[in-house]
Specification:
This protein is mainly β. It contains no helices and five strands.
Length: 78
Amino acid sequence: MFPKRMYGLDLMHPTEHHTRCPYKGEASYWTIELPAGEGSNRRSENAVWGYPSPYDEVSGLRGYYAFYPNRVDSIIVS
């Protein structure tokens, strides 16, 4: 998981998809949308997930997001 300060939140759009973990709480999902040229966009549905309101025991997860590697072209950590 990566802290939100490491990437552009303006490229992520929340979706209606949610899942529940018995240990962490409800996970929310985001779609990444990037300009693809000539007025079109590239989208990767539900490519990002995180716990905006995790349980108290794992509150350190708040503000961090994870990426499904099969739904993005690359993940670069600098």
